[in-house]
Amino acid sequence: MDGGPRVPEQRRAGSGPVAEPGPLRFGVLGPVRARRGEEALPTGSPQQRALLAALLLREGRTATAAELIDALWGSEPPSQALAAVRTYASRLRKILDPGILVSESGGYAVRGLGEGALDLAVAQDLAAEAEKARGTGDLGRARSLLNQALALWDGEPLAGVPGPYAEAQRARLEEWRLGLLETRLDLDLEQGGHAEAVSELTALTAAHPLRERLRELLMLALYRSGRQAEALAVYADTRRLLAEELGVDPRPGLSELQQRILQADPSLAEPSSPMAEPTATPVRPAQLPASVPDFTGRSSFVSELTEVLSSASEAEGRVMAVSALAGIGGVGKTTLAVHVAHRARGAFPDGQLYVDLQGAGPRPAEPETVLGSFLRALGTPDTAIPDSLEERSALYRSVLDGRRVLVLLDNAKDAAQVRPLLPGTEGCAALVTSRVRMLDLAGAHLVDLDVMSPDEALALFTRIVGEERVAAEREAALDVVAACGFLPLAIRIAASRLAARRTWTVSVLAAKLADGRRRLDELQAGDLAVKATFELGYGQLEPPQARAFRLLGLADGPDISLAAAAAVLDLPPEDTEDLLESLVDTSLLESAAPGRYRFHDLVRLYARACAERDERPPSEREAAMSRVLDFYLATAAGIYAIERPGDRLVDHLEPTEHEGLRFREGTAALDWLYTEAESLLACVRQSAPTSRLRRGVDLLWAAKDLAESGANSRQYEATAIAVCEAAQAAGDIRAEGRARTTLTNVLLVSGRIQQAADEAQLALDRAAAAEDVAAGSWAANDRGLISLHQHRYADGKVFFDQAIKGFSAAGNRAGEATTLFNLSRAHLAMGNITRAVDIAQHGLTLLAELGRTMRLANGHYALGMALTKAERHTEALEQFGEALTIFADHRQRLWEGATHFRIAEAHIAARLPAQAAQHAEQALAMGCIGGDRMRGNVLTLLGRALSTLGQADRARACWHEAIKLYEENGLSEADEVRALLRPATAA
Prior knowledge:
The chain has 46 helices and 16 strands.
């Protein structure tokens, strides 16, 4: 380490003037940087940075102009090199403090920098301190100091700085960095960190294949990890590489290590330079449990916690560090804590204490009992251990004073149990695990441990089961870890079961775990069981908490809002929030976002099992689900009424006993609807096979905006199919008619006309049989729309007349107006342009009396189409502009896209192809109501606009794509587009 580059004069030159708001700092172990306090200073062009770097690395000595020119340009300087150097120096003076860059003897120097002003100087000091610590046997401190030095590198030294001098310095600094790294790795092996060092050494030898010291360290690390064959293979690879690349043999030290490995030299199994035992400490406890050999992932947590713990041992004057890990049972808190403790143990040479505090069980460990055990482990005779908790805690802190000890307090009940067990002085650290988030543990570094990532989960499963079995059935393995909810304990149990059953395939295990009702029973092996782990946490809950845990687990959906949870529990929101936050603190519930909560998948299964077992009376489960369905239905109905004032559909929905939320305006209402979409649709699906079916169907109908907007169309369709099947199975023709109306709506949105026709006819038939006027009117309207798509305009008019009659009889003026807009389109298709304009205007008049409603946009849309055909293009564009604004306000993106298409049609009719192309492109980007058919229409129109603009190739591309869409959907429009291609091809 003493061979490293030095800059002594700069480091010892004194403090110099300090500019506000902070002292100057320079960096060369990466990009050349200058800072004043927290302010980054502009260092100028690459050549100017090269000049600054050359002066910083001159050890405070003067560099002549000739030396600087040679440093920047080598043997081929520009003609104005001297002037350039003077310019760079002048610019640097302006940004640096006075007196820092001085002129002397025709050259320049950087002087008067404060202590630690240059990152290279700091690294040199740390390396020197590390060497001293190693010489005294303090290997943990030496390793930590080297890590601090290495952390100062920020990529390539002098990055981006040109010139031969910078190139030479880069090579020198990189060589020094590798030397420091080799020394630190040597310390790792001396302290027993061979297993952890293997991966880093593997990467380093790949990056520096000819560096024999790295190869030697890798061989030793592999041998001490029980991988003798791999260690010898490293030697063979090294020998072959050196012969091929350099024509030389390995150096004697490497050859000697190979022979010692072949002879299984016993001295190789122990550190070559054992850590000196502390002379002042009579007893050095080493109580950490063994780390699991297949520890996987968690790299960010390992680094974070190791750094926090190690820093407590290094920093003088710093208070004792406490890190508290919290998470659900089975998430791997103990495994991670033990692994981190082993990694950090070198920083605590005076020992490591461990205790399982039994916090999740019925009889948590008493602090005074634990203190007695700790004091004995630290060498205190039984006769000297006092009786009271306060006296034992005070003696414990006194014994630890001046020592560096790590205390691992596993499975703590709460902060009150932990506080007496914490060391009280600097140099010590405590690592706590608990299912409870210890917010009241003052000064603690809190870490919330979540489940594994999918990649980490698969890696753990593979390490236990074996690469060969997993590689053959990777998809099934992913299904297994997903069924385990990526929970480490569940993955370990599942993998252990599979590893013990050689006749099972991964697919067999995946199939067993696919049954949610049996999954927890499958996840047990020996004395390990996921259910038992959750049972410990559940047993600690107070009765109100336990009830909330059970009932909330009944609701499907990715998460649940505070308001919905209050409905489930039949409690005020304030009381509900207190309960839910207390469950979050126990790690049985997660806070997905402010006011939103979720269960881990396996915890939800356990909560439901608890509800079936413990909820009394059993009818409370059904009552809870009924309340949350009422909440969703009442809220969605209120939003429907806000969006569609005057629409009487809400009068025909199933009555509710429990209130929902009330909104004063549409923006907040729509925010709620789209935020709750997944949970709302999950509630509908849950209601399908129950007595709540009718309310579930009505909730889906009231939330039809989720289908029309396109944001949740797929989930909406799947839900509509589920309730259709449930209603048919139940023989409930009223529910079936309404369910098929919702399915028709989403099929129309996606442009699947024939399927929509089949569902609409069934909806019309069921509504008639059930004498359901509301559903029958909307089904007739849908049949009319379908007829328009099928070019059966007269039939469409008949259906629209039928719908208008039904709406009028029910006093549903909004429904009547909506159908009038569609009737206008039928007349337009039949060539009755004037009639189409009149009907659309009449519908708008009806709606205008009801207030600003989303359906006004449909009216402007229909009137705009009619005015376009009437060649009243300016008026048409005004109508489309109104429609576009309203659709945007109501977040109807697909209708926005369709409106852009109609605007493009108006521009084409007005012979404005450039504007038409612009709006057609916007329609394609946003998507349109009508699915592939409508996309084909947009592409056809875009092609016409492009063709008029002289872009024939793009036009043909659009038309070919449109034909493909039409053909895939069996639509006759394909022939019309082919007719457009023929003259274009001929041309």
